[in-house]
Amino acid sequence: MINYDAIIFDFDGVLLESEFEGNKLLAELLTDLGHRTSTEDAIRNFVGYSGPEFMAAIERWVGGALPPGFHDRRRAQSAQALQEGVRAVVGAVDFVQSLPPDLPIAVASSSTTRWLSGHLKHLGLAERFGDHVYSGREHVDRGKPEPSKNPPTLQGLDDDTRDLLRSLAERALEGLGVKDTAEFLEGEMARQFSAIAASIGAERDDDTALREAIRAALEQHE
User: Fold this and answer.
1) Strands 7-9 and 133-135
2) pLDDT tens digits, one per residue of 60-83
3) Do 15 and 92 form a contact (C-beta atoms < 8 A)?
4) Are 73 and 179 contained in the same domain?
5) Which of 45, 97, 110, 217 has the fewest beta carbons under 10 Å from its own?
6) In what order do the strands lie in the sheet with 7-9?
7) Domain ranges, residue 195
8) Which stretches within the chain are classed as H helix?
9) Are 160 and 121 within 8 A, CB to CB?
10) Could you tell me if 11 and 101 lie in one domain?
């Protein structure tokens, strides 16, 4: 068993199931503003970006400046989500609560501390994390590294790994209550793969290590 001195958690998509919900709302907003966008389109094109890079990705998608009213309506969506709360990633709260009380843990995310602290309260985890809530927007000069020159893609996966990843994506979508999983499957596979590849680092090029990581994620949905 591996021993840890501390654990630092990402937040959106790791503890909070906000990436799917957020991209669904973003797709609805862009469509309403005249730029037809599916949730799968949003996941494929906008996940992984924040701040100016996020806005630039949307402008590339719509082919110009952001539509009038976009920012006001986007802020309204965020405020509503913060007020009402968003569901946790399956197994995330139980995992955090199962950790030894004396193990130091923290959240480090590109989201604001207001977003992080508010949702940690909804999840019942605010006291466990305490003051160790860190924002890439507020606490460092650059919240995300430079984009990788060789980002992970689904195209190079072998059939066995793709099948496992497909099962994981289907389970994740079913956990969100999505009935027609086929419509969002490819985008969710890409989202899950990006998160897993980032978590195992250089080992993402090792098929065995990658499959083990996917199986571990699948077990969280059992």
Assistant:
1) unpaired
2) 999 999 888 999 999 999 889 888
3) yes
4) no
5) 97
6) 7-9, 105-109, 133-135
7) 159-219
8) 18-32, 39-46, 51-62, 70-84, 92-98, 113-123, 126-129, 159-175, 185-200, 207-219
9) no
10) yes
Which two tokens mark 119? 């949702």
Q: Residue 123's beta-bridge partner residues?
A: none
Distance, in Å, from the CA atom of 137 to the CA atom of 110, rounded to the nearest integer, reads 6
Asked whether the whole model's pTM tops 0.85, one would answer: no
Residue position matching structure tokens 């977003």: 115
One-letter amino acid for residue 168 of the chain: L
Tens-place pLDDT, residues 85-114: 889 988 889 999 999 999 999 999 888 899
Q: Mind listing the pLDDT tens digit for each residue in 127-138?
A: 999 999 999 888
How far CA 90 is from CA of 2, 18, 105, 164, 197, in Å, comes to 23, 12, 19, 18, 19
Structure tokens at 11: 């937040």
Phi, psi of 157 (to 5 degrees): -80, 145
In 3-state terms, what secondary structure has residue 139?
A: coil
Q: Based on the domain organization, do 163 and 209 belong to the same domain?
A: yes
What DSSP state is assigned to residue 143? S
